Amino acid sequence: MDRTSYPHFLAITTRWKDNDVYGHVNNVEYYSFFDTVINDFLIRAGELDITAAT
After folding, report:
1. In terms of Cα–Cα distance, which of 54, 53, 48 is closest to 35?
2. What is the pLDDT of residue 19?
3. Looking at residue 24, what is its pLDDT?
4. Is the pLDDT at 54 greater than 60, yes or no?
5. Which residue intervals of 1-54 are DSSP H helices?
6. What rounded mean pLDDT belongs to the chain?
7. Residues 8/37, Cβ–Cβ less than 8 Å
8. Sign of torsion, CA 9 14 17 22?
9. Is 25 helix (H, G, I), strand (E, B) or coil?
């Protein structure tokens, strides 16, 4: 599969705390990245209205 197989992309800038001492992204941060991308997709698709959340 190549990039054209995936219709949605979101560039995420890592923070200092996201990396280990070797400069690799910590494994636990990937879950946070997935959550961020999914929420961005839902907001853009109009399926998630964060202003109306209770």
Report:
1. 48
2. 92
3. 92
4. no
5. 27-44
6. 89
7. yes
8. positive
9. strand
Q: How far is CA 6 from CA 10, 12, 18, 19, 20, in A?
A: 11, 16, 25, 26, 28
Label residues 16-50 b or e (16+ Cβ within 10 Å = b). Answer: eebeeeeeeeeeebeeeeeeeeeeeeeeeeeeeee
What is the chain's alpha carbon radius of gyration, rounded to the nearest angstrom? 14
Tokens of 30: 């990937």
Q: Give me the amino acid identity at 45.
A: A
Q: How do residues 29-53 score in pLDDT, each as one tens digit?
A: 989 999 999 999 999 998 888 888 6
- Helix, strand or coil, per DSSP, at residue 47: coil
